[in-house]
């Protein structure tokens, strides 16, 4: 069964914990966004795992170098999954995968900036990553004419385990799941909602 991941792009540990407490009943994976980790450090990962030991905690490290080292730092802090950028050297991805094996954890490759996401998704899957995040970041989403449909089409074509991030919301969740995503990532559709718990519950209902 596919999983729902909440991406927390807030900027304090306190706010992240408050949001997670509201939405935890409806989500499978709690993601600490890259800006949040940069602002608060890996202690936000530790705090989240302590508060939600039954959830998978996803540290959106967006690692670009020293794959093994950064993955190990996040796993030691309590992360279950870490991200490595797909645009970087294969050695960085492989290093993170080696660290994940050592800790019994998992690596996800983030495809922001990857020109041919389908090709790269297939390449990195062979290195042993858990799944590939077909991702349009917040800056790309803000460009005129952005549509999540491209990611959905790429997922259908890829033939490897993938998540989709980049505007997953109540309108797009069904198409994301029908495309075969193993994880649907929703950030602003949850943390930006007037009632985040209700928004998460509505998204989760689409999984049935
Ligand atoms: O990963 C993300 C982004 O790079 C900032 O950290 C977002 O969490 C991801 O794009 C999901 O957010 P929404 O697009 O708002 O659903």
TrEMBL record:
Pathway: One-carbon metabolism; formaldehyde assimilation via RuMP pathway; D-fructose 6-phosphate from D-ribulose 5-phosphate and formaldehyde: step 1/2. It comes from Chitinophaga costaii. The lineage of its organism: Bacteria, Pseudomonadati, Bacteroidota, Chitinophagia, Chitinophagales. Keywords: Carbohydrate metabolism, Lyase. GO terms for biological process: 'de novo' pyrimidine nucleobase biosynthetic process; formaldehyde assimilation via ribulose monophosphate cycle; L-ascorbic acid catabolic process. Residues 3-203 form the Orotidine 5'-phosphate decarboxylase domain. GO terms for molecular function: 3-dehydro-L-gulonate-6-phosphate decarboxylase activity; hexulose-6-phosphate synthase activity; orotidine-5'-phosphate decarboxylase activity. Its EC number is 4.1.2.43. This is 3-hexulose-6-phosphate synthase. It comes from the Bacteria. InterPro entries: 3-hexulose-6-phosphate_synth (IPR017553), Aldolase_TIM (IPR013785), HPS/KGPDC (IPR041710), OMPdeCOase_dom (IPR001754), RibuloseP-bd_barrel (IPR011060). Belongs to the HPS/KGPDC family. HPS subfamily. It holds the Pfam family OMPdecase. It catalyses: D-ribulose 5-phosphate + formaldehyde = D-arabino-hex-3-ulose 6-phosphate.
């Amino acid at each position: 069964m596919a999983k729902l991941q909440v991406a927390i792009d807030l900027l304090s540990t306190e706010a992240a914990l408050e949001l997670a407490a509201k939405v935890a009943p409806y989500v499978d994976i709690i993601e600490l966004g890259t800006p949040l980790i940069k602002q608060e450090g890996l202690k936000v990962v530790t705090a989240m795992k302590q508060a939600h030991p039954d959830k998978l905690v996803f540290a959106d490290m967006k690692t670009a170098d020293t794959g093994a080292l950064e993955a190990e730092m996040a796993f030691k802090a309590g992360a279950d999954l870490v991200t490595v950028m797909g645009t970087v050297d294969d050695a960085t991805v492989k290093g993170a995968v080696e660290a994940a094996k050592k800790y019994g954890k998992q690596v996800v490759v983030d495809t922001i900036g990857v020109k041919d996401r389908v090709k790269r998704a297939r390449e990195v899957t062979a290195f042993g990553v858990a799944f590939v995040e077909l991702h349009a970041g917040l800056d790309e989403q803000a460009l005129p004419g952005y549509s999540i449909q491209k990611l959905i089409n790429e997922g259908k074509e890829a033939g490897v385990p993938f998540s989709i991030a980049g505007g997953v919301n109540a309108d797009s969740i069904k198409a994301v799941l029908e495309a075969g995503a193993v994880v649907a990532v929703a950030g602003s559709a949850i943390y930006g909602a007037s009632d985040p718990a209700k928004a998460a519950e509505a998204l989760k209902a689409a999984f049935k």
